[in-house]
TrEMBL record:
Keyword Transmembrane helix: yes
Annotated organism of origin: Blautia caecimuris
Entry annotated with the keyword Ribonucleoprotein: no
Transmembrane segments: 21-46, 66-92, 104-125, 173-194, 201-223, 261-280
Protein name: ABC-2 family transporter protein
Keywords, comma-separated and alphabetical: Membrane, Transmembrane, Transmembrane helix
Lineage: Bacteria, Bacillati, Bacillota, Clostridia, Lachnospirales
Amino acid sequence: MRQIKAVIQYNFMGFYKKPKVILTFLLGFILCFLLSSRIMPVIQAYKSPVQMLEPFLWTFGDTTAILLSSVLLLLLFSDLPVLSAITPYYLCRTTKKRWLFGQLFYVAAVSGIYTVFMLGATMILCAKVGYPGNIWSNTAAMLAYSKLGEDLNVPSTVKVMESVTPYGCTAQVILLLFLYILCLSFIVLAGNLLPGKNRGLVAGLLFCLYGFLLEPKVLRVLLGFEEYEMFRVNVLIGWISPLSHASYGRHNFGYDRLPTVWQSCVVFLILLGVLIWFCGRRMKYYHFVFLGEKD
């Protein structure tokens, strides 16, 4: 564990000074500002304070917001695994397996930091109208009973408000978002362990494109389905689309056949297990390149 910890610590050296890290988090904050701007008029229209976590729930209740926020990580993780002049030293003092686990824990830690950052950004942007109490606001109740909440993809339906508190709902949304981002990050890492250049970036883009094409509205346009034909399609997409698994509003709250939040977590964990196994297999054949020579 000390060797794995040393690899993680070295990967984090100068982390917040790297231009791509600064750019990623800056773009993430700008994205939160643009996404939250669509719900601010609603908050101002009702002239009622909101629970401080509700803007995050309303912003990332939309699959488009989840997709856009995760795509930014392609820039951050484009150079995985992290290689530097000191990497040969770690490979000599430890094993490929331990070095790989250091990379995996590093990716998980960065994904967690990024997820919490997105939460903090929305809280800061809406701090003036927020309160910390663990109770749904009147604005959330109004959205739950109106069509406006459905149009905004706000996950504050009556069923949700009766079964879970804002803090509990936020914990589930953060967990789903984190697992989706972690899967995307591990896919980039697994792709970069394949022969050739930029395989990880291509794999990450294909993963995002797969989720986008399985968006019900997009699929309906592509296949020319009518509204009444979309019920079974929506249920199927809910099970096979990772982006749908990451969206809190696309889950079963007791009245449909969509997956529950915990079933989606199991799906993500299975996918993560497959990716970790694949990375471990690829490490046996991965050729490290330093100063133009292979080691």
